[in-house]
Specification:
- By secondary structure, this protein is mostly helical.
- It folds into two domains: 7-193, Up-down Bundle (Growth Hormone, Chain: A); 212-394, Up-down Bundle (Growth Hormone, Chain: A).
- The protein contains 14 helices and no strands.
- Helix 4 runs antiparallel to helix 8.
- The longest helix is centred in the N-terminal third of the chain and has 30 residues, at 18-47.
- It starts with 7 loop residues before the first helix and ends with a helix.
Length: 395
């Protein structure tokens, strides 16, 4: 059995400064992902309006998705030090302004404006971290392990962030989650701005360089990520609705826990292997498997069959995402990596937003099974777009 010291994950942290960099990136991402749910808890508790709370959370997420590629392009051009420092200051100020507006019962438009400004000034840390690994390990077999590690960390944050927010809101104050998210985002971003180890962009793209979005095959990859994000979100929400229809809403947590745990385990296994095939070939294999996992939810005639369905789908999520990230790391020029990977993050955010809207409507009008079918349709779109993108990349 391979010892930990010789595993690819141990080799990743042998470079100086890597541990501190990963801790800073984890803190900043935790702060970002805590924000959306914290906004809902805080605004609904103070104003009594869940509609306003949901709109404020959506304003944050949408502004983050739209502004992220622009600031990441600036990071590629001017280096992360100055841009991240300015963003950390602006983001902390806008978050503090948001807290003040809610506490002082400001008008709804000011609350939405400050929430959007908080999202627009939040750097795309996940893309930033992956871009550093891609620069350090381009052409190395360890890159797959690094991208797998980041996918597992993202999954860990997605599971733990709601728990932390719920505990803070229940035992301290509804604003505690917002304050904690602000401190984590500010501290993590400031630490990343001060990072001076290898892996940062040395020189940005030429002024006439076209955006990464217009590279051959890249728009199809973006569509693939949107479809994956939408499909996975629909599965999550429809699972909760399905369990509620059967009078067992508490089972939705364990089912989604199986989904997250299997995804993390598959990601770690995927990253520990040395793959001989190109990532575009692997994507062409994992996307149909992802679609088959969504069909398992459609075919589940009993609530207990959602557990094996979650097991099967979970095994495909992380490998699919890692293969797609690997393709982006290959086709985007090194001087535009942060921008290119941020488009991926933004497209996932767009897919999650679209999936939330589609699943809610489908559940209300046709029921949970129809929502599961909608997730399979999203998976079919991902197959077509992903395989087409892979063909462009191979050419």
């Amino acid at each position: 059995m391979r010892s930990f010291k010789t595993s690819p994950y141990a080799q990743l942290f042998s470079a100086p400064g890597t541990v501190a960099f990963e801790v800073a990136g984890f803190a900043a991402r935790m702060g970002h992902l805590m924000t959306v749910l914290s906004v809902v808890f805080f605004v609904s508790a103070v104003t009594g309006s869940y509609g306003l709370a949901g709109t404020a959370a959506a304003a944050y997420a949408l502004a983050y998705s739209l502004a992220g590629p622009l600031f990441s392009r600036l990071i590629d051009r001017h280096g992360p030090g100055r841009v991240l420092a300015a963003l950390a200051f602006a983001n902390t100020a806008s978050r503090a302004g948001f807290l003040a507006v809610v506490w002082l019962a400001g008008p709804a438009w000011s609350l939405l404006a400050m929430s959007a400004l908080s999202g627009a000034t939040m750097p795309a840390v996940g893309a930033l971290v992956r871009a550093r690994w891609s620069r350090l390990l381009r052409g190395s077999a360890l890159l797959e392990a690094a991208l797998s590690l980041e996918s597992v960390l993202d999954g860990t944050i997605l599971v733990t962030a709601p728990v932390v927010i719920s505990v803070l809101a229940a035992y301290l104050n509804p604003a505690a989650g917002m304050i904690c998210a602000m401190l984590l985002a500010a501290g993590g971003s400031a630490a990343l701005a001060a990072h001076r180890q290898a892996g940062w962009p040395a020189r940005g793209p030429a002024r006439g360089a076209r955006p990464a979005l217009f590279l051959p095959g890249f728009p199809l990859l973006i569509l693939t990520f949107i479809a994956i994000g939408a499909g996975q979100t629909i599965i999550d929400i429809a699972t909760v609705a399905c369990c509620g229809d059967h009078g067992a809403k508490t089972l939705s947590g364990p089912i989604l826990g199986v989904l997250a745990l299997c995804s993390a385990a598959a990601g770690l296994w995927y990253g520990a292997r040395k793959w001989r095939s190109a990532p575009e070939r692997r994507l062409a294999i994992t996307l149909p498997l992802f679609a088959a996992g969504t069909l398992a939810f459609v075919a589940a005639w009993s609530i207990w069959l959602l557990f094996p369905a979650a097991f099967l789908l979970g095994l495909t999520i992380a490998p699919t995402m890692i293969a797609a990230y690997s393709i982006v790391s290959r086709i985007v020029p090194e001087r535009q990596l942060t921008e290119g990977l941020t488009w991926v993050t933004s497209s996932l955010g767009i897919g999650i937003s679209a999936g939330s809207a589609v699943s809610g409507t489908a559940v209300d009008v046709w029921g949970a099974r129809a929502a599961f079918t909608a997730a399979s349709c999203c998976a079919a779109v991902a197959i077509v777009a992903g395989i087409s993108a892979s063909r462009h990349v191979r050419r």
